[in-house]
Amino acid sequence: MKVEHQLHGDRKVYTVAAFNRGVASWLTRLPTLWIEGEVTEFRRQERWQSVFFTLKDPNDGSCLPVSMPRNGFDALRLELVDGTTVHVYGRPELFAAKGEFRLRALTIEPFGLGAVLAGIEQLKQRLAAEGLFASARKRRLPVFPTRIALLTGTEAAAKRDFVTAVTARFPAARIVIAQTYVQGPRAAPALATALGDLAREPGVDVVVLARGGGSFQDLLPFSEERLVRAVADCPVPVVSAIGHEQDTPLCDLVADARASTPTAAARLVVPDEGELRERLRTMRSRLDRAPLLLVERKRAALDSAAGRLRALSHRATLRRGYAIVRTDSGILRSASAVSPGERLEVELAEGGLAARVEETRP
């Protein structure tokens, strides 16, 4: 494309539009190439014909805007998130209307740790859609486990921390231990097999899956699908104690309970014997006091009932100066019911007397 200029004396002057078109035309001569970077600022709208994001160089922060036709991007079925490292194949171009330089992407491939993160995220969404992480699936841990199974690596730290904490809290606890690979390509199948074997051990009613801290790569086996499904299918509750607080492998999400460390897992699976004994002493003391409290409550209830009965008794009325007059037919309530000369019995608050009727009055 020939870019026209204007002459101002001995000076060649290009308009902005001409300059941009010229640069854009020159960029088309450059070959397509692969560029590596971290995805940031991913943008997409349903009405847009393209998707946009920025490639960032993690070493010095250099940035490169990228666009890609939406139908081509959708066909790749990528779940791009900020921080994902990708290889982008495309060619540089200049959007002449705005003078914006960018890379026109033809295809995108996840790379390295970014690809791993993208794979884990896709697996996480698929398992979540199956309901494996639902809270309704979580089972309660036994209050007093018959036998605790510990599945850990050959390193001493995780096993020592867990056993020490359990023994300190509840010395009577019974623990069966299995050790296998906890990192590397053989770890996930070995852990899945060992988990199934431990769950079938007689008397085991809870399994603790534990390892000490480690790098993100070290913990990758605990996000592999085979092991995650083995935890979900385990017939007894599983406690995941993997890594540290900031680590969240998929086994944490599918397990019935999660602990940040093996020591924290011990606090979940066994009670504290000292606290139990203190509670028993408190309850025993309450039981010893219970009969006395019951007697006192019954006595108070009787006193209250006696007071109400005394208030309702006819003797309380007699003590206020009233009398009960009886004839041979019963209590006398009307003067018209007797005749002069008839014998009467009079009951007073203290004692009584006999009388005869001399006259009656209306």
SSE topology:
Blueprint: E1 6-8, E2 11-13, H1 16-27, E3 33-43, E4 50-56, E5 63-69, H2 70-76, E6 85-95, E7 100-110, H3 112-129, E8 147-152, H4 156-169, E9 175-179, H5 187-199, E10 204-211, H6 225-233, E11 238-242, H7 250-254, E12 257-258, H8 262-269, H9 273-312, H10 314-318, E13 324-327, E14 330-331, E15 343-347, E16 352-356
Parallel strand pairs: 5-7, 8-9, 8-10, 10-11, 11-12
Antiparallel strand pairs: 1-2, 3-4, 3-6, 4-5, 6-7, 13-14, 13-15, 15-16
Helix pairs in contact: 4-8, 5-6
Tell me the overall shape.
elongated
Top-tier CATH class of the largest domain: Alpha Beta
Radius of gyration: 45 Å
Q: Which strand order spans the largest sheet, edge to edge or round the barrel?
A: 3-4-5-7-6
Distance between the termini: 139 Å
How would you sum up the major sheet? 5 strands, mixed, barrel
Helix content: 25-40%
CATH architecture of the largest domain: 3-Layer(aba) Sandwich
In oligomeric terms, what are we looking at?
single chain
CATH superfamily of the largest domain: Succinyl-CoA synthetase domains
Number of domains: 4
Overall residue-averaged pLDDT value: 87
Q: Strand-and-helix sequence, N→C?
A: EEHEEEHEEHEHEHEHEHEHHHEEEE
How many helices does DSSP assign?
A: 10
Global structural class:
alpha/beta
Under CATH, the topology of the largest domain can be stated as: Rossmann fold
Poorly predicted ranges (pLDDT <50, ≥5 residues)? none
Give the amount of beta strand, in percent: 25-35%
Work out the number of β strands. 16
